[in-house]
Fold:
Amino acid sequence: MRRWNGWGDEHFSLELPANGAAFLNERIGSARPLRDAELEEVTARVPESRLPPHDRVLTDAETRVRHARGQSLPDWLAMRSGDFGVFPDGVAFPESSDEARDILHWAEEVGAIVIPYGGGTSVAGHINPDPSDTPVLTISLGRMNRLLDIDHESHIATFGAGTPGPLLEAQLKVEGYTLGHFPQSFELSTVGGWVASRSSGQQSLRYGRIEQLFAGGRLETPRGTLEIPTIPASSAGPDVREMILGSEGRMGLITEVKVRVTPVPERESFHTLFFPDWNAARSASRALVQSRVPLSMVRVSNAGETETQLALAGHEALIGALERFLAWRGAGAGKCMMTVGVTGTRRQCRSALRELRHIVKRHHGVYTGTYMGRQWARKRFTMPYLRQALWDRGYVVDTLETATDWDNVDTLTDKVESNLRDGLAGEGEAVHVFTHLSHLYTQGCSIYTTYVFRTADDYDRTLARWRTLKDSTSRIIVDNRGTISHQHGVGKDHAPFLPVEKGELGMEAIRALCQMFDPGQRLNPGTLLSREDETS
Amino acid sequence: MRRWNGWGDEHFSLELPANGAAFLNERIGSARPLRDAELEEVTARVPESRLPPHDRVLTDAETRVRHARGQSLPDWLAMRSGDFGVFPDGVAFPESSDEARDILHWAEEVGAIVIPYGGGTSVAGHINPDPSDTPVLTISLGRMNRLLDIDHESHIATFGAGTPGPLLEAQLKVEGYTLGHFPQSFELSTVGGWVASRSSGQQSLRYGRIEQLFAGGRLETPRGTLEIPTIPASSAGPDVREMILGSEGRMGLITEVKVRVTPVPERESFHTLFFPDWNAARSASRALVQSRVPLSMVRVSNAGETETQLALAGHEALIGALERFLAWRGAGAGKCMMTVGVTGTRRQCRSALRELRHIVKRHHGVYTGTYMGRQWARKRFTMPYLRQALWDRGYVVDTLETATDWDNVDTLTDKVESNLRDGLAGEGEAVHVFTHLSHLYTQGCSIYTTYVFRTADDYDRTLARWRTLKDSTSRIIVDNRGTISHQHGVGKDHAPFLPVEKGELGMEAIRALCQMFDPGQRLNPGTLLSREDETS
Structure:
């Protein structure tokens, strides 16, 4: 069963290896975990629902607890402390677009605010209710999780919007296809959520972001149904698909999603390489993507991340041997790891590997085979469980991400890292910080920074530490040509920073669209557009 | 100098080869050209300008004639007959974004309608003024035609929006780059026009459509300036870039465009192949794109287009020998030609060619080398001159284009072709029709149909013939899952058909955006949204 107060399945957890704990102890000191609340404590605190009864709407306390929070760090602290804040007044589970439409109408009749809910994996506060005078109805698409149609000529599959990653890939695999969309949240996030939040998967270099995979579908809005037809490309005016992508529940409920699928590739492999320093690693990754080498993934860790990953990998003897080999080949202290995905026909993979080797050599990279890549691929979706393992030792981990042009990658990375590293210096607390570039484009790339700090003596002060780090770094990102989010969306946490990026007129354009689809402003208020923006 | 009444440069023209004329004569009968008007006749008819004087605005008759019409078939007939309809009251030529903004304000002060003008190559009535009680000011971006900045790390170039294709590529080439955007209108169309109309180039398979190339830029709107920052990818809400793409002058004047450029490729070649029939050719093209063979172009002519192209090629002896060779190899009557572009590093080209050969063989294709491909590449931008050559013989040529999913390509092509072929049967007139698929996507492709018919006894009846064919076929396209335009935009000619594709809410969303940027509805009225849509 799914954890009510953290990530993933109750019956799965990661262990922090002993040398990993020692590594963190050495970097930021030893720590003490805070006490976790029990489910019973929390359900006892859930207030009476303000919604009238409806046969598709559950109002029991546990259901409302389980749909009150996402997976952001404040969500985590809320769930662990038991101090949840606001609960939805009920959760609806429509099983078809027609039912979803009916429930949307019912919500309007009873004057409820509506929060569309996919997998509940938001790390930016998309699905948390704010305090309100009117009841809040969360509509979960979770029961709309089936492959509804597949077109073998056009390679288009139609899914219920609530289909989560593993169920989507399993249903496609039977038919011989993959979507190839693998965000870190893959285990729980849904295809409708991917569209609503403009998600990006680990192999976007081959398959594209969800913007490229989303071919059309259906949206139930307060103004009626919007059917987006599947057309491969068009010059017929602004693209309605692109208005719905990133709409974060503000324009309607996405109920059906048509996606562009790919036959299961003949071959796939993941390779690791090491570079003597950051400059070589970053240059090599830029050269790979700007030369259009057809890889499915390139992920480059900076020296801090490389060191941390090797420390946390366990297998001390093996890692020791690897490091001696790398040092002998010129990649010693300061070395940076690159993981590369190669996917396609046998011919395509062979040719991509040939090009890869050619470019890597020019940048003094050392090829270390597929062993570590296989490990990475096997564990790729278990990373979110690491928060629990660290939490149990008294550490808090969160990530910040952005994207910027290549000419700005180093500058922005440095600013983000040093702001985080020094962010708690006032309290005399160290923060452990490291970064990788993952999603690569000819123009630039994403920057994904992880930071670890110790819990304070209580929940409030722990949240305050996070707030200090998050807000100041978010400001640095948007003030330095970064997007407030490359792959996590806006939600409520990033909404105050959006206007810097979109500009005044850009914000007005988004507001005009939300206003058109939802004149009553009943859908997901406070998400995407902060409340101040809405009234301006 | 540019022709005032047709396509391109006055000093260049194409000849119809003798066997080409015989071919058309045999298909649709011999024809007689209509009389062309002289420039002096037309300028004499230009009414007094209704605009007050402004030092950046020209109001002389010839300038107004030269900016009154685009390159649609109705535009052609208007220019040839001398019966232009409405002229703009003046044409402004700003030389900077600031000047463009000033002129936009001035237009508002004097109550003028504004038509943004790039290369004047619209084939859908984007830049033609409608009759109006208020003066019409056309703002040409033609003097903003320079490379303003180039970022060698991020591969982003900034251009004045009025930079036409050849000048854009020439300025990039000096720096070692190409944009790779080659629409048929390349000789005259501009980068701002490409963005405004969601253009697609012949090698979009490698470089992407303008949607993928447009990284950001500047828009001067009645509500102020919108700066779109260059961010490689983002999940921060709906993408403002995508609202401007296809805005067709309704939201503002695009004054600066930042594009994603590519280093000039090491190699490029164009190859031709022949398939025994349509089924084989279409299947092969679908297999190529769905297998992700990294080609830069795939263009497949149906049997009608293949026959016509070979007839119009001249070189009878050579073509005869080719056809005997092809027949011997199994591609006789009904054969279909494919032209393939291979672009990239030496390694990439070699590998792509290997995959091409493998797939083509499975579909019984016959490879005929690069001779015809080289000819095609050399003449690729001269095709629009063919309208003149046919006109001089009394024939009218126009094209219709759409895109649809692979499962619908044959059905829609058949419906479009047979509707055109029989469209003038009531008058006892034959129409010569042929088609190619050019822009290929894993999901589907574009369908590009050319039709040739004879001029009637006068201009009005010739236009009536066109109207009959165009309107009924446009209806068929949108009623059968095609987009009203894959690469020509909406303009005024396609506006009545747009609502079928966008749906009621989609249209309202576009209207809401236009209304937000241009509350006075002063920009390009009747384009994109027909006047009926606007008042609804």
